[in-house]
Amino acid sequence: MSAASRLQRFGLRGIALFYLTALLVVPVGIIFWKTFEDGIGPPLEAITSPEGLHAFWLTILCVGIAVPLNTIFGVLTALVLVRHKFRGKAVINSLIDLPFAVSPVVIGLALILIWGQDGWFGGFLEDAGFQVIYAVPGMILATIFVSLPFVVREVMPVLQEIGTDQEQAAETLGASPRQTFWKVTLPAIRWGVAYGVVLATARALGEFGAVSVVSGKIGGQTETLPIFVENEYTNFNLAGAYAAAIVLAILALAVLFSMNMLQRRARKSEDSGDDGDETPVTTGVFVPHPIEKEA
Amino acid sequence: MRGISLTWLSVIVLIPLAAVVAKSFEEGPAAFWDAISEPEAWAAIKLTVISSLIIVAINAVMGTLIAWVLVRDEFRGKSIVNSLIDLPFALPTIVAGLTLLALYGADSPIGLEAAYTKAAVVMALLFVTLPFVVRAVQPVLLEVDQEMEEAAASLGAPNHRIFRSILLPNLTPAIIAGCALAFARAIGEFGSLVLLTGNIPFDTQVASVYIFGRIESDNVTGAAAVSVLLLLISVAILFALNLFGRWRSRHERG
After folding, report:
1. In the CATH hierarchy, which top-level class contains the domain B30-253?
2. Number of folded domains in chain A?
3. Inter-chain CB proximity A31 and B16 less than 8 Å
4. Which residues in A200-227 are b (16+ Cβ under 10 Å) and which e?
5. Taking CB atoms and an 8 Å limit, are A31 and B81 in contact across chains?
6. B99/A98 CB distance under 8 A
7. ipTM exceeding the 0.95 mark
8. In chain B, which residues have their Cβ closer than 8 Å to the Cβ of A23?
């Protein structure tokens, strides 16, 4: 390599690293520094306050309901979209990505218009004494909405890649559709499912906009951790805001870590598999793939 | 099976979004137009679109550059830098907003008090949209055959020429796709902006924050009209990307 092009290479590396440092590393570093500026006492106190703990458990509840439901839906929908042929399939395939593209606030508004007091369905429910909007059920619906596409999008490419040979073999050998699914299909797509679950969990944990619109932000009742961060900040309780933000940031780092691990394991299990194709199961892309080729 | 998955999608996503569209046109197209062209709404929409265009331009350049460094360059800690790219996706938006506020807010530790300005809007959008172009370009760059570049280099072509004539044409579709996704994300962004921008009407209030304000003050029709505009833009982008992707895969197969 010539000296000039080595210089160019260093220059580009420098620009890239500087940009990432200024944009990502410094801000996220600052928040750690600000949180523990006065020691570990104040943030610990804020996060273990009754409201802080409530926010934490409510977040876990929303995630715990939304992610399993979307996992079942995701695997089912991926199977339908990859293995079945029907009219309007391309349209459905595009519509799955809507939750990625729609503003969180618009999602919140949409849920109010359906499930709110004057909404299409909400009126009946409220007459029956079941409140959705400005209550926990609405927050769960919002969490389901925003985390809906992840499992579908991670499982679809894997299903396309594994093909139907093994499933057909199982069928010929007399396996019922149920057996084929549990013994053949599911083990083959497990890394794709796991990756989708991780991404959906990350999104569900951190969702702010949609959940906040439908929550009414009632302290100690309808606050998830992200909403707790905002409420503490606007009430000038900085220690609380930073402490909750740190908890969320640590969860985010855990997600990044598991993404990395899953990618590595998926690649390894594929390498040891029969076809030596080196394409990784997942691309590491946390973004929708509307460009994915049609099957 | 198809029934279950269609029902789930409809109940969770499609019917609620249809309700927004229905609400915005409840009082006719004239009322819809009035709600959008109302000065405060229009200022918010303009700010949102212009800042989104700015960050798309920056992302196109920086995203491609970062992707190139991550694929073609070798240095210690590269895999850490590579995982760092996904941080803005993993980090909740409200936390992103709070971190930027800690950095650029009152008594900023770096002496740069940019919070509550239009520059802060751009900074926050750059933060949350960083991964799109990088992650779109990276896999394409990995697959590009380097032989053409080597041939050009051995024939004496300067590096910038090789980039422009050989690499860039290969990367353009991915860059466009990444930019479109970044744009779609930017026009709807809410969480990272709500604390950072101060939400000053006619100055730093973006469309999503405007909608939020209208919902809180019970002006649902006004909120729905601007929502539909955002919805139209994002659906148009999804649709265009799909068409573009299909056109390209047909094109490539010949």
Report:
1. mainly alpha
2. 1
3. no
4. bbbbbbbbbbbbbbbbbbeeeebbbbbb
5. no
6. no
7. no
8. 123, 126-127, 130
